[in-house]
Amino acid sequence: MLRNGLEPWHLLILAVVVVVLFGSKKLPDTARSVGKSLRILKSEAKAMRDENAR
């Protein structure tokens, strides 16, 4: 089952579950928070990489 990876219908089911759990009103705020967290993580990883290069 895991050998084939994720099929498109797996992602569709996952999207439906997320909408049901969080509700459509909270999804934009959640996506914004995740995006901000990823930007912070990316900048911190870049800073660490630059620091180790010295």
Automatic annotation (TrEMBL):
Topology with respect to the bilayer: Single-pass membrane protein
Protein localization: Cell membrane
Subunit (UniProt): The Tat system comprises two distinct complexes: a TatABC complex, containing multiple copies of TatA, TatB and TatC subunits, and a separate TatA complex, containing only TatA subunits. Substrates initially bind to the TatABC complex, which probably triggers association of the separate TatA complex to form the active translocon.
InterPro entries listed in its UniProt record: TatA/B/E, TatA/E
The entry's keywords: Cell membrane, Membrane, Protein transport, Translocation, Transmembrane, Transmembrane helix, Transport
Similarity field: Belongs to the TatA/E family.
Name of the protein this chain belongs to: Sec-independent protein translocase protein TatA
Domain of life (superkingdom): Bacteria
Species of the source: Streptomyces durocortorensis
Protein's job: Part of the twin-arginine translocation (Tat) system that transports large folded proteins containing a characteristic twin-arginine motif in their signal peptide across membranes. TatA could form the protein-conducting channel of the Tat system.
Record-linked PANTHER family: SEC-INDEPENDENT PROTEIN TRANSLOCASE PROTEIN TATA
One Pfam family in the UniProt entry: TatA_B_E
TM helices/strands, residue ranges: 6-23
Gene3D superfamilies: 1.20.5.3310
